[in-house]
Design a protein that fits this description.
Lysozyme, globular, 10 helices, 195 residues
Length: 195
């Protein structure tokens, strides 16, 4: 009887420890979702970008919702406007561009990573690149002359991206963390289609 009670207590203790360790992972997954990781990794590598940076930008832009549309008509995971999408398509030789392609996760990440690489080549400093991605590259010259003119929303955006990069690095270095936590808020069919 004593032995059985010990086993029961030991089992309950193990369950409590498992829940204690697992609950923060689930919370992390809710706060920092990661979907389409294969697409993110593929295009980040193609563009010589840190996949964690790309994932952090996607989190800040759309929270990994491919159907996201902003009030300024920015579309998809990386929130690309139709005008910027058309310009990127010209730059990379994409001949059949339509705005609807920006809803496709692979195309959106292809275009968004090209644009990030373009901005990185132009400005080199990651915070400046993120400012340009958020507010447009035309604003950067004026902000260099008057740093106090930087939009508060842009400053917040840069902090949000920079502060979440380390979590996405953890996901990419330890992929089992993303696999052992549920893809919350997705249907079974959506979970199967997520990379």
């Amino acid at each position: 009887m004593c032995k059985g009670a010990f086993s029961r207590k030991g089992l309950l203790g193990l369950i409590a420890v498992a829940l204690f360790l697992y609950t923060p992972l689930v919370a992390l997954r809710i706060l920092y979702p990661l979907r389409f990781s294969a697409i993110v990794k593929e295009w980040a590598e193609e563009r010589a970008l840190d996949p964690a940076l790309v994932a952090a930008v996607i989190r800040a832009e759309s929270r990994f919702r491919p159907d996201a549309v902003s009030p300024r008509n920015a579309i998809g995971l990386m929130q690309i406007t139709p005008m910027t999408g058309g310009w990127i398509a010209e730059q990379i030789g994409y001949t059949d561009f339509t705005t609807d392609l920006l809803f496709d996760p692979a195309t959106n990440v292809e275009f968004g990573t090209w644009y990030l690489r373009h901005l990185l080549d132009r400005f080199s400093d990651i915070e400046t690149v993120l400012q340009a991605y958020n507010a447009g590259p035309g604003k950067i010259e004026g902000w260099k002359e008057d740093p106090g003119a930087i939009y508060p929303a842009t400053t917040l955006y840069v902090r949000r991206v920079v502060d979440s990069v380390w979590i996405y690095r953890l996901y990419f270095r330890l992929p089992f963390l993303a696999r052992i936590t549920p893809l919350l808020g997705l249907s079974v069919a959506e979970r199967r289609s997520v990379g």
